[in-house]
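Notes from hallway chat w/ T.B., transcribed later so I don't forget. T.B. wanted the structure written out for a chain they're using in a teaching module, and asked if we could keep both sequence and structure tokens in one place. Agreed to drop them here.
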Amino acid sequence: MKAAFLPPLAALALYAGAAIVPFESGEQVQAQRARAPSWATRNYVMKAGAADLYEIRSSEIALRRARRADVRELAQMLIRDHRRTTAEVTVAARADGVPVRPPMLEAVQRNMIRQLERSGPAMFDRLYLSQQFTAHNQALMLHRNYARRGDARALRRTAAGAVPIIQGHIAHVRRLQGMR
């Protein structure tokens, strides 16, 4: 086997490049890892974004398809409130050093959106309210759990602030479901 030959300039560049890489001690690496957001925190940010995105998209559909005016009013409120909670989670995540990616719907949420789009006019309002009840209860558990156990301070405060908003949404949905 022949030894690899590097031209003198490439060898010098390789050597010079290695010379400028800072040495990190074990303590520095541990401190950097301690500052890195945990999986639970990154997961919370991702799931909170997906939950808000579902609420917004499903409510935009409801604005077009709902027969009842009170259901359309709920949809407008949910769009407004969930855009706000998305912005608040984004600001808190950045403050806690958590990378924020554009939210994406989870498979279950994409399926729920398809159900709304395909439902007949007579069933739409009932289906939308049923989905909102389920989705908001899931979001309530997500935010409540992170507010209690999360490891990022700004996100914990934001999660705690989202809890009463979501509880209000659930109460509103329940009232509307009782008005069938």
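Follow-up for T.B.: The longest helix spans residues 121-149. Might be a good example for the class.
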